[in-house]
Specification:
Layout: E1 3-7, E2 10-12, E3 18-25, E4 34-39, E5 45-51, E6 58-60, E7 68-73, E8 78-83, E9 92-98, E10 101-102, E11 106-110
Parallel strand pairs: 2-11
Antiparallel strand pairs: 1-3, 3-8, 4-5, 4-9, 5-6, 7-8, 9-10, 9-11
Length: about 110
């Protein structure tokens, strides 16, 4: 079955960086459009970024454009999210998604 396992979250100071990763299994990863979503405390799920199966097309929410970079390694069945210039507003649980399926999430906390 589809499995998505996120990692790489943690506590970081404002202006800092983190790189999230997602290990995918149970489907043909290279054929699959993948996304990152996030959910801040007390808020709904927010789309962050998406990438095409071959990695040539990427899309970003306005709130992260220019700061976050989505990428993938189809040889490793892995999805990544490089997050730079983090602010408190980026504090959330981040989820790797395939359609409506998501992993358990990884917590990102931006605080001094």
């Amino acid at each position: 079955q589809v499995q998505l396992v996120e990692a790489g979250g943690g506590l970081v100071q404002p202006g800092g960086s983190l790189r999230l990763s997602c290990a995918a299994s149970g489907f043909t990863f290279s054929d699959t459009y993948m996304s990152w979503f996030r959910q801040a405390p007390g808020k709904g799920l927010e789309w962050v970024s998406s990438i095409s199966g071959d990695g040539t097309k990427t899309y970003y929410a306005d709130s992260v454009k220019g700061r976050f970079t989505i990428s993938r390694d189809n040889n490793k069945n892995a999805l990544y999210l490089q997050m730079n210039s983090l602010t408190a507003e980026d504090t959330a649980v981040y989820y790797c998604t395939k359609g409506s399926t998501r992993g358990q999430g990884t917590q990102v906390t931006v605080s001094s």
